[in-house]
TrEMBL record:
Main location: periplasm
Gene for this chain: tolB
Protein keywords: Cell cycle, Cell division, Periplasm, Signal
Protein name: Tol-Pal system protein TolB
Localization in the cell: Periplasm
Task performed by this protein: Part of the Tol-Pal system, which plays a role in outer membrane invagination during cell division and is important for maintaining outer membrane integrity.
Classification via PANTHER family: PROTEIN TOLB, PROTEIN TOLB HOMOLOG
Subunit structure as annotated in this protein's UniProt entry: The Tol-Pal system is composed of five core proteins: the inner membrane proteins TolA, TolQ and TolR, the periplasmic protein TolB and the outer membrane protein Pal. They form a network linking the inner and outer membranes and the peptidoglycan layer.
Pfam name, any one: PD40
Top-level lineage group: Bacteria
Coiled-coil regions listed in the entry: none
Residue ranges of domain TolB N-terminal in the record: 27-125
Amino acid sequence: MMTMKKMSYVVLCAGLMLGASGAQAQLRVEITGIGSNQIPVAVASFVNESAAPQSLSGIIKADLARSGVFKLIDADAPVSETAPVSYEQWKSRGADALAAGTVQSMADGRLDVRYKLFDTIKGAQISSMNNAAAPQFNRLLAHKIADDIYEKLTGVKGAFATRIAYVTQSGREYRLEVADADGEGIQVALRSNEPIISPSWSPDGTKVAYVSFEKKKPIVYVQNLVTRQRTIVSNEKGSNSAPSWSPDGSRLAVALSRDGHTQVYTVNADGSGLRRVSTSSGIDTEPQFSADGQSIYFTSDRSGGPQIYRMSTSGGEAKRVTFGGSYNISPRISSDGKTLAYISRRDGNFQLYALDLASGQELRLSDTANDESPSFSPNGKYIMYATESGRRKSLAVVSVDGRVKQRLTTQAGNIKEPTWGPFMK
């Protein structure tokens, strides 16, 4: 059970305190495809959930459906977490699990949300949660419950309560926006009349690094999403681009052209300690720290065309990683360090691929023709990326096995450059 102190911290970080930035057009989520071996689960309406601003059970069911992992069984009526459970009855309706709960209004205005999860096959309760929070954190509580259901029934940590960041372009205005993983709760972190590119979340989820052209050249900034304070991390001569965080949040890897051609550097998160890492005569760019922080993956044309390489964070020999196709860019590594996602150009199409680093097996994950900017969910089960359809840029999400696909669209401009935030601690 989550303590109130921990819940308050999560709420603070998830809310991000970006201030009143004006209502933004919400992202619309379309789901296609389902996972194999779906788990049948019934999510009953919570007793008295009309006391909450939105239906908690509705948010939970939308999360689970979006994952493609679950088959939702109709529960018909509200069920309290304290009500006796007829396991045989739920089994006969096809449910392997039942989620039930209650919402109570507290004297101080907060909502007390209680939930339990029951395994109908084993005939036992397998999880519970009891949290109290202000009504504006209603969605967060629902996402946390969905995360709990996902984890208890799959053994993998859920990522519904995480955040995403991306860039929206409407006319000449660029906005760095932050939203819930389901596209709701959009807040604007930065507005500019000049391009914003390459956002990257810090490991603790409180900051985003990005490149802004507001001073008529690319400069790398780090912005604290809670205080809104910005720090220039790299403003060297030439181009400053492609920031990515080390797993401990102490450093960033960046691509700089300060010495005439673009190479990989590392820099401390406060902008000090700049150090060159790569030393090729070609272009080395798009650096990404490995999951253990000991290596850097990057794109280089040193073999004649862009391919992905790996080298030690201290520099030295670089080893080529991608061999399928003649054009592979934008490396992203999963949190367990086992899977590499990237964009590959084949037959004239730029598409999302995943590479199992142990076996060398490659899998094409998208069927669109102009993909870019992949980003793993923190549990490593999904990849978000930008794509183009009918001259409109939108975001897409695909499971790492390619079975479940989602499209996130908006009526207000183009959305691109996605980055999926970390688990909140």
